[in-house]
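Please complete every field before forwarding. Incomplete forms are returned to the sender.

SECTION A: IDENTIFIERS
Entry label: holo-206
Bound molecule: flavin mononucleotide
Molecule representation: SMILES string

SECTION B: INPUTS
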Amino acid sequence: MSKHARPDRPIHDLLARRWSPYAFDDRPVSAEDALSLFEAARWAASSYNEQPWRFIAALRTDAAAFDKVLSCLVEANRQWAQHAGLLALGVIRTTFSRNDKPNRVALHDLGLAAANLTFEATARGLYVHQMAGIDPDAARRLFHVPEGHEVATAIAVGYRTPDSRLSGELRERETTPRARKALREFVFGDDWNEPAAFVPARVSGT
Ligand SMILES: Cc1cc2nc3c(=O)[nH]c(=O)nc-3n(C[C@H](O)[C@H](O)[C@H](O)COP(=O)(O)O)c2cc1C
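SECTION C: PREDICTED COMPLEX
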């Protein structure tokens, strides 16, 4: 069963192929691939070019480091993320280094870096599953994350394996068709909730 997007309009194949699997193969992710993923993240846009993202990353081939990152995930995520080839925690610096004022878009920019990383991964035949389900306090303690920084997310990267490896709720989630809001529900024009003029009122099948 394909979980590729079924877009209403043409989009780039890399975007259509991306989705967040639970069934990861135990195949390792190479250091070369990992370096290119973070290189892709490095070239993301950011407000004032602050680059407020930081990543704490470990390959599964480095068992001690990998388990340390894994221990910062909530149990429900640990269950499947333990099979990923690469785990990373996404951290933001919450103020601008130029003036120490709050950077209210730091989380946005971490998201852009994560998106860059994700599409580089997709181009390399890898899958990414991002997580909010982490224990930020544990991560702060274990990795000595300093004041002025927040541990926000985690990212699992790896190769996919057939969903038959999963059971119960994870299997269910893995095989549930993907759903999305229609453009008219989030692209507004003249007023809140008013679809922008260029957005058709209804697309067949939505
Ligand atoms: C910031 C963020 C946090 C997420 N947190 C979790 C999580 O803690 N556990 C989980 O299983 N999936 C998590 N997801 C995955 C989403 O559930 C998934 O992206 C969403 O259902 C859409 O599916 P798709 O990525 O396959 O299109 C997260 C995704 C993002 C972007």
